[in-house]
Every structure is written in C-alpha cells, then in structure tokens.
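Q: Structure tokens for this one, please.
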Amino acid sequence: MFGFPQIDRNEINQFKKNYLNSVVFQVKYNESLPLLDYKSEIIKLFFEFLPICKDVIQKKLNVLLKPDHTPIVGQTKENEKVLELRSQDGQKVLAISKDIISFTISGSAYTNFDKIINILEIIEKILVICKIDSLNR
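A: Here is the predicted structure, written as tokens:
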C-alpha cells in the first residue's frame, strides 16, 4: 500500500526505538485494600523485578468547578498511604493503594509486551492474595 514494502509483523518482536513517554497498566477495584496486611507478601512477589520498596504518602487535591467562576483548587486533609516498588534503574514503578494498582514503565525502558507479561501475572496474584474478585477498571 502506498508503495511501502509488505513486512511480516511476526518477525518484529521488539521496538528498536519507540516514541512512548510511558506505558501504564492500571487496575481499579472497590475494595479497600489493607496494605499492611499483605505488604511482606507483595514485596516478596516482586523482589526480583522491583527490589526498591518504600511507603509514600499521597496527597489529594480537590478541584471545584462552577459555571462562570474561577476553578478553586485545594488540598484535602485526607492523605493516603501507597506502597511503591521500583526497579533498580527507576524506570519501572508499581504503586499499590487501597483501591488502585498501577504499573508504570518509562517509554525508553519498554521494548514489548512479552517482556512485562510476567509482572502483569504477578499483579494478578496480588488480586488473588488480597481476595479482590471484581474490578472497576
């Protein structure tokens, strides 16, 4: 088509260069996950891929929008504790809060889906360990 040569896509198994800023895999659930109850198990599951562990306090913002008024941005008093696991190079980050699991990879560290499928399978194990049986997103 348009004079481009036909290429067998099965031969392409990873990007030599990509233009992604980041790749995000996110799961949202209704249950309020008690992080402290499962923290040591989660750390053991990911230690090979994401050995750096720290607790982060996530601050929340409120944005109030009214027609014909200036938007009002304010910080809420509610802070949320998040378990954050990172790779040695800091290019991969897994953040687990009470209602979201988010896995972010820097675009330059992403080569193909097959390289991250093992981490996604471990995320599935977290859902089983924590007895989360329904997802919102």
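A few notes: The longest strand covers residues 72-86. The longest helix spans residues 117-129.
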